[in-house]
Amino acid sequence: MADRDRVFAGSIPKLYDTLMAPLIFEAYAADMAALVAAFSPDSVLETAAGSGVVTRALAPKLSADACYVVTDLNQPMLDYAATRQGSDRRIEWRQADALDLPFEDAAFDVVCCQFGAMFFPDRVVGYAEARRVLRPGGRFVFSVWDRIEENAFADDVTTAVATVFPDDPPRFLARTPHGYHDIALIRGELRRAGFATIEIETREKVSLARSARDAATAYCQGTPLRNEIEARGKLDAATDAAEAAIAKKHGSGAVAAKIQAHVIVAVA
Ligand SMILES: C[S@@+](CC[C@H](N)C(=O)[O-])C[C@H]1O[C@@H](n2cnc3c(N)ncnc32)[C@H](O)[C@@H]1O
Predict the structure, then answer these.
(1) By Cβ atoms counted within 10 A, which residue in 32, 72, 119, 192 is the most buried?
(2) Is 115 in the pocket of ligand 1 (CB under 6 A)?
(3) Start-end of H helices in the chain
(4) What average pLDDT score do residues 4-23 get?
(5) How would residue 240 be classed by pLDDT, with cut points 50, 70 and 90?
């Protein structure tokens, strides 16, 4: 993974939240909130919380005296998340690397992390940190995207943007968000981190955007793919190519396509 794959800053947090989150993250966030709330936790740590899509879904489901610590590596994402969240004394916002958590052992009932693990440079270290801060019997609930071929817009965008840079195609989407989907590998890394009881469910959903332009802008400008395109120039041309490819395949009005992810619950 390139270092810039982890940089969610500048124009990215706002475009991520306004275009990407409704496109592919909100539907899974509702599921994650229900899954976490079903454990009736008194204390929750969220890692890689991004612009707060899970936080907004989960906070209303937690008890009135729950403690909810919401963290991310990139402060600009947390800053944006905080602007979207109403005042809530149960929530503490804190910048933190999921691989080096600034919390005591056994401090939480649940650690949740939606679509963050693919960005960890060492997953076993990240999982071991989640386990360390969980009380015995606590749950680590997280999700990762399935392979890019199961996620139509991401695949379309990657193919289309490659035509703009044929000698050096940006591969962020395939390499990082869709680069960690092997269930046997995920189980093996969780076991190496000390988790013994692991459940994995693959969930298909539908991704919806108002237009091909919105979907193209979301991927090309609201994710770290933007960093990779800007390093080569031609951000507008790359977005135009992605829009044309999505419109050709999915239509010129509102567009819909398949997305698919793995949802994992591991018991500490
Ligand atoms: C695809 S976003 C997911 C954000 C959010 N969970 C959601 O569902 O919309 C990935 C997030 O992982 C964060 N991230 C990347 N590396 C991280 C790390 N080592 N520790 C914590 N967060 C990290 C990024 O800042 C980004 O906000």
Answers:
(1) 72
(2) yes
(3) 12-15, 26-37, 53-58, 75-84, 123-133, 152-164, 172-175, 183-192, 212-221, 225-232, 235-250
(4) 87
(5) very high
